[in-house]
């Protein structure tokens, strides 16, 4: 019976698909950043963020917190790609419309529960508010502040994302590798872009400036809105758009 159970589990464990997804995420992210920062306006914005980050890094509070949250992120991602994602992926062909629909569903599902956690837990009256207040020490965030997060909060955020994929895969069926690649790139990059300092109020950068400005409003104090991280849709419908 034990052998049969192991074989049944093994049949659903696709580590190759998970490895391909991880490799694609890394390569596309690196190539994408290289291409994006060939644009002079965006390259200049990056240098402005780097200059601010160098000043912040000299403060005693930054290195240990950033390293702690990066270590937690590493542990969570190793668990995700080795133990969770292999059960959620398939390399069987799927139509483009289904891949795009699944990307949308995963991101909106995750963002809904992140919105609730952020609004009522991170900004509530308990211990998590104190933990989240570490991140809110950044009143005018730059790129570095995306990583200036208490490790406990990092764990919760990644667990929500990992859990969203696992739950939806159990309900909807396994996702195509491309679905998770696209979803993960959007998830990781938006969580970083939200914290960058961008001031490019002209086409085609207005949307980017607007996104970062909205999250900067959230960082003004612990009483502002704009709780969602992927889209401000839930803030709009629940009346917390600030």
Describe the protein.
The chain is mainly alpha-helical. Helices cover 69% and strands 2% of the residues. The protein has a two-stranded parallel ribbon. Helix 4 packs parallel to helix 7 and helix 5 crosses helix 7 (151-172).
Question: What gross morphology would you assign?
Answer: globular
Q: Order of strands in the sheet with the most strands? A: 1-2
Indicate how many domains the architecture comprises.
1
- How would you state the average pLDDT, rounded? 94
Number of helices: 10
Sheet-strand content, in percent, reads: under 5%
Model regions low in confidence, pLDDT < 50 over at least 5 residues: none
Q: How would a textbook summarize the main sheet?
A: 2 strands, parallel
Class from helix and strand fractions: mainly alpha
H/E order of the elements?
Answer: HHHHEHHHEHHH
Question: How many β-strand runs?
Answer: 2
Percentage of residues in helical conformation: 55-70%
Specify Rg, calculated over alpha carbons.
19 Å
Give the CA-CA distance, first to last residue.
57 Å
Quickly describe the structure.
The protein has helices spanning 2-11, 15-36, 40-57, 62-84, 96-122, 127-135, 151-172, 177-193, 206-218, 233-237; strands spanning 89-90, 175-176.
Topology readout:
Elements: H1 2-11, H2 15-36, H3 40-57, H4 62-84, E1 89-90, H5 96-122, H6 127-135, H7 151-172, E2 175-176, H8 177-193, H9 206-218, H10 233-237
Parallel strand pairs: 1-2
Helix pairs in contact: 2-8, 4-7, 5-7, 5-8
Features:
mainly alpha, two-stranded parallel ribbon, globular
